[in-house]
Amino acid sequence: MAKQARERRRAERRGHFAEYAAALFLLAKGYRILAIRFRTKAGEIDLVARKGDLAVFVEVKARVGEREAVDAVSATAQRRIRAASDIWLSRRSDAARLSQRYDVVAVLPGRLPKHFPDAF
Which family does it belong to (predicted)? Predict the structure, then answer.
């Protein structure tokens, strides 16, 4: 196997681990996880969570620092997540009564994840 392919698979595994760690962290904070890796033609949302009448679309970043994680969510990624969230909401019968928010969860080595509500 080529080195590049191995690195890509390693990064993918690290990302999946980070998504599950973030999901568990949000569960502990009282959120319900409705979807992990919700995929559409517009893009993918790492986590869709809900707390009361609030739908939360979460981008998960595994980085060495909090600032690096938040900065890694580019304007292009934000547009992609918003477009995918519109599709998710369009499939919900209760979408009209839900407010929405876009969060980032930073998964940091050796520490609990850090939640950044309303990050973008």
Answer: Belongs to the UPF0102 family.
User: Using one digit for the tens of pLDDT, what is the confidence trace for 91-111?
Assistant: 999 989 999 999 999 999 999
Tokens of residue 48, six digits: 């869709």
Q: Where are the domains of the chain?
A: 3-116
The pair phi, psi for residue 43, each rounded to 5°, is: 155, -170
Residues ≥6 apart with Cβ < 8 Å to 59: 45, 46, 73, 77, 81, 102, 103, 104, 105, 119
Q: What is the CATH number of domain 3-116?
A: 3.40.1350.10
Q: What is the mean pLDDT of the chain?
A: 96
CB atoms inside a 10 Å sphere around CB 32: 12
